[in-house]
Amino acid sequence: MITPSYTTSPNGSLSAPSNGSLAADSSPPSPISWELAERTATRIAARQPWLPPGRLSVLEEDFQELTALAEELVSAETGLRPLAGPARARVTDRQGWVVANIASAQRLMRPLSKKLAAAMAKPAPMLGPIALRVPAELSRNVSGAQLGALLGWMSTRVLGQYDQLLIEDESPDDQDIVYYVGPNIVDLEDRFGFEPRQFRLWIALHEVTHRLQFTGVPWLRPHFLGLVSSLVEGVDPDPRRLLDALKRAVSEVREGRNPLDDGGLLALFASPEQRQALDGIGGFMSLLEGHGDIVMNRAASGRVPDAANFAGVLRARRQLGALARAVSMVAGLDAKLKQYEQGERFIEAVEAAGGQELFDLVWRGPEWFPTLAEIREPALWVERCAGAAPAGT
């Protein structure tokens, strides 16, 4: 997950870091107008519940304390220990989440931006009767507006996020942080009458689980970033790929399948090599998200009596309306929601076959991690790994 780097100013309000937004960075020239994306998203994000300074202060104090408690509980449940020191909590708002996610997206997309910028500078090819000739500035603005609208909508729903990226040009103080989107959390507490301390601990348990996954398993972070890099760097900007993708989509619709089911538009336009990378990322995230949910609920036992109520409300919250569901499917978020369910089912099936001892083999190395096919058919992973594990493990 990509996370914000907003801090709290002395007067208690949420503010941007001193170096400002990174969305204005235009090096290399990008096919996306990051400035327009930020303006669009922050305009949507600005429509958020007001958080009085006194309530913000309590929220920050709670998350400092409860994040530390959550780390103890999750470590006891999973056996994972953080190798990077204790977890740090930070509260942000919707606009802070937007600005920092755009900045992180810029960093990740630098290789892709170079390719697309070079492709856009070339004369548009003729593909039969079709000329793919769109003014570069218009294309940048359309892409920026679309990305901004998506991030603005997402900012209204996210509750917490762990920053697992290590960025060379960013201060260490703004990395490896567990973030909480204060207005969204308080809004849910007020609307559903949640007991605040219980709900905040419950959220912290999920996010701290992700931090322990990435800081307690040394190979996990570089492996994940390698998968993302192979996906981004493998993009082919050839316009002919657009027509090929549209043909595949029409074929899948005719066969009764939704072409957006396996990752939204990104999967639709992916090359065979990228689809392999997407499958790797899909299996990876499915396991981690499912593990996060399962550990959250197990670690909450005896500590969060209302956990079942919280889980029920969030499950209902995932049942989106027609417009929101369309946005979710196009962006690949619909596939992400399935990751939670598939990951949980995989873990339950593996533990039924060999207990937590068998499941813990996944942390040994990338070769022990399940593929997307194995996530969907856990018996495949059990057959592959249970027989390969040395006796007594």
In short:
The protein is mainly alpha-helical.
| Class by SSE composition | mainly alpha
Total of helices: 16
Strand content: under 5%
The fourth-level CATH homologous superfamily of the largest domain is Zincin-like metallopeptidase, N-terminal domain
Number of domains: 2
Report low-confidence residues grouped into runs of 5 or more: 1-20, 22-28, 126-134, 321-331
Order of helices and strands: EEHHEHHEEHEEHHHHHHHHHHH
CATH class of the largest domain: Mainly Alpha
Please give the alpha-carbon distance between the first and last residues. 31 Å
Mean pLDDT, as a whole number?
76
Major beta sheet summary: 3 strands, mixed
How many E-type strands?
7
Multimerization state: single chain
What general outline do the C-alpha atoms trace?
Answer: globular
In the CATH hierarchy, the third-tier topology of the largest domain is known as Lysin
- Please give the order of strands in the largest beta sheet: 3-7-6
Which radius of gyration do the C-alpha atoms yield?
22 Å
**Could you estimate the helical fraction of the residues in percent?**
55-70%
CATH-defined architecture of the largest domain? Up-down Bundle
